[in-house]
Design a protein that fits this description.
Length: 260
């Protein structure tokens, strides 16, 4: 470890007052977000688990982390609401002394052919996925400490162009644009900004409404011949959030098992 890295790590420990780096994970109550929260806690982070409405699930994540010896708390926030997100970040700072990593895993999916999708559903999807990413990114840009990282979530569907995913893919295209621009706007701050773009991953959100034949077909598309798991994706996020991954910046990492 270099002297500069040692100094930065020591500074983060001193500021947090917890002996740990501090992470916020939005959408942390289920699926990939839950796995990310648990993985970061296992890596020594104090974790703030952001959730939109399912308090019971978020509290369960906190209990699981604490049972394993980690530090965590749950906080409700609508990611598209400035006041909610500001309060979420202030809670992390007040409780743990600062923020080192933000993982923005909260998202919404609506699937239908473009000709058939209800426009109210389109507006709700883009409010969460685009405005939410913008609002969370604003607070992260203002508050992340040196050596920190912001990790957003896109989707490999952008390249795969599955029918029915038009509205969702369009929203994630915006996420990628915001991610790449913010990485450049953070020049001089020693903060990395990246996005992870999972392929088909075995979460409740992804599996809902799909029959076994469809799931098997999607699993077979990868040269690894399986669906991804939340743990696969959490491992990528954990790398980007770590000092080892800090040189990766302004990138979209397509964690999809090799689907092209």
């Amino acid at each position: 470890m270099t002297t500069q890295t040692q100094s930065r790590t020591q500074s983060q420990t001193d500021q947090s007052g917890t002996g740990a780096r501090v992470a916020i994970v939005t959408g942390g109550s289920r699926g990939i977000g839950r796995e990310v929260a648990q993985r970061l806690a296992g890596d020594g982070f104090a974790v703030v688990v952001g959730y939109a409405g399912n308090k019971e699930a978020a509290d369960d994540v906190v209990r699981t982390i604490e049972a394993a010896g980690g530090r965590a708390l749950a906080a409700r926030a609508d990611v598209a609401e400035k006041d909610d997100v500001t309060a979420l970040f202030e809670l992390a700072e007040n409780r743990y002394g600062g923020i080192d990593v933000v993982v923005h895993a909260a998202g919404r999916m609506a699937l239908a052919p473009i000709a058939e999708l209800d426009l109210d559903e389109l507006d709700a999807l883009h409010r969460t996925n685009i405005r939410g990413t913008f609002v969370v990114g604003q607070q992260a840009a203002r508050r992340l400490r040196p050596g920190g990282a912001l990790v957003n979530f896109s989707t490999s569907v952008l390249g795969l162009a599955f029918p029915g995913y038009g509205a969702y893919a369009a929203s994630k295209g915006a996420v990628e644009a915001l991610t790449l621009i913010l990485a450049r706007e953070m020049r001089g701050r020693d903060v990395s900004v990246n996005a992870v773009a999972p392929g088909p991953t075995a979460t409740d959100l992804f599996l809902d409404g799909k029959d076994e034949e469809t799931i098997a077909r999607l699993a077979a598309q990868s040269p690894l011949e399986r669906l991804g798991t939340p743990r696969d994706i959490a491992s990528v996020v954990a790398f980007l959030a770590s000092p080892a991954g800090h040189w990766v910046n302004g990138q979209v990492v397509r964690a999809n098992g090799g689907i092209v």
